[in-house]
Amino acid sequence: xxxxxxxxxxxxxxxxxxxxxxxxxxxxxxxxxxxxxxxxxxxxxxxxxxxxxxxxxxxxxxxxxxxxxxxxxxxxxxxxxxxxxxxxxxxxxxxxxxxxxxxxxxxxxxxxxxxxxxxxxxxxxxxxxxxxxxxxxxxxxxxxxxxxxxxxxxxxxxxxxxxxxxxxxxxxxxxxxxxxxxxxxxxxxxxxxxxxxxxxxxxxxxxxxxxxxxxxxxxxxxxxxxxxxxxxxxxxxxxxxxxxxxxxxxxxxxxxxxxxxxxxxxxxxxxxxxxxxxx
Length: 279
Ligand code: A2P
Hints:
By secondary structure, the protein is an alpha/beta fold. It has helices at residues 6-9, 96-99, 139-144, 148-153, 170-179, 183-188, 214-219, 222-227, 245-257; strands at residues 18-28, 31-37, 49-58, 65-73, 82-88, 107-115, 128-134, 156-163, 197-203, 237-243, 271-275. Helices cover 22% and strands 31% of the residues. The strands form two sheets. The chain has a six-stranded antiparallel beta sheet. Strands 9-8-7-10-11 form a five-stranded parallel beta sheet, sandwiched between helices. Residues 6-11 have low confidence and may be disordered. The structure holds adenosine-2'-5'-diphosphate.
């Protein structure tokens, strides 16, 4: 076997699952989003995730490169021409230490096998839907908030987002602001559809308009009062949870206590939960 030099390493053929990066936006030193081309044959349901990554370094012993892949929620809606993802940056994270440096024109690997439980199919009909997110757990809701079915299925959509710092709310806030001008949603759902949305951003480690963990704010009743809504009720409420592990578990317990049952694709019920990706 020939030794691997820089010139032979570059001859590794483009992978069949390679997609081209079209846009990158940085929000804080811990967060960024990017868009890439969509595989022509890829169909997915808003809220699902795929495996995303980059080629790893060449192994000096074998001369081979292996893809480095992680599960990423698709942040773009099912009808969009492009794919969008929202990611953390971990300075020593195997993937995100590299992924944070991608530029338009670069290639990423996208395995076109979407899966996940944060989908409308996993919930039984209801009147109100709660999207509970922390950090990059906002990503699947960025997809679902741009999905017409969300507004066809529910009279009211409540999205809560808890982050450490105020700057970490920017991606979600910008996205919700932009919904007002979303042509497809205005056309399909009707002008003013966005009035169905109640947005509740909170921070825990930096001063902002609303401070505290959503779990505590719900327990104390403060969130209901701020939002001017009735407490959680298994008859009318459906919920999706996506955040860090401790948050997912705590909120799951709270929903169970309120009488909601966990659903799945194979057995739809009243709420579903998924862990946000961490490098
Ligand atoms: P806190 O700052 O009080 O830990 P992370 O960046 O660590 O994933 O956290 C994202 C957000 O989730 C932070 O605001 C964090 O609050 C919050 N959080 C962490 N654990 C829980 C939990 N069990 N319930 C509610 N929020 C939580």
